[in-house]
Amino acid sequence: MIIILEGADGTGKTTLATKLMARMGGANIYRRATPREHVLREYTFDRITRDPIIADRWHYGELIYGPLFRTETQLTTTFFRAIDQYLRQIGALLVLVDGQAAEIRQRILGRAENDDIDELMMGDMLPRVLDQYREIYEWPQEVRKMRIMGPAEDHHVDEIIKHARRAYAARHIKYD
Q: Is 58 exposed, middle or buried (0-12, 13-18, 19+ CB in 10 A)?
């Protein structure tokens, strides 16, 4: 089972990943940073196992944060579609973790450490980033997806696991 959590910084993706991992037991959490290799290699999994995988940000983040930090994204429309089809074939579930800007800013302020992205989110960038995530989420895609409003609650965890099991059952690629 593969669950991909997408959303702006401060929406609660990491908290949700931790809750999912605790509930699912044995899940691996992947955190995606700036692609260092070919973008298709970065956004496909090297090894798929029966163990649950939780990805804390994936290809949506490259579309949004790439232009902010490098002036462009490495993810073309063709690559986006290829990744989308791949995620559908392996039975992934994409979850957009959304929220209200004021609540997200409060969570960012409550963090022990802040980084460059947090600094950007405290300014006028946050509403634009949230809107970009919502816009990409609405694009036609093959991967199964759902949207929740953060922060993550137990009922979100249950609902995500239920949808992830359905996505996994409908996968096109079977694992050994």
A: buried
- The residue written with tokens 């993810």 in the block is 75
Which domains does the chain possess? 2-169 (3.40.50.300)
The pairs formed by 59-64 with CB atoms below 8 angstroms and a separation of 24 or more are: 59/83, 60/6, 60/94, 60/96, 60/133, 60/136, 60/137, 61/6, 61/32, 62/32, 62/34, 62/35, 63/132, 63/136, 64/8, 64/129, 64/132, 64/133, 64/136
For the segment 49-98, what is each residue's pLDDT rounded down to a tens digit? 667 889 888 889 889 988 887 888 888 899 899 999 989 988 999 999 99
State the average pLDDT over residues 98-123.
81
What's the predicted TM-score (pTM) here? 0.88
Q: How many CB atoms lie within 10 A of CB 104?
A: 25
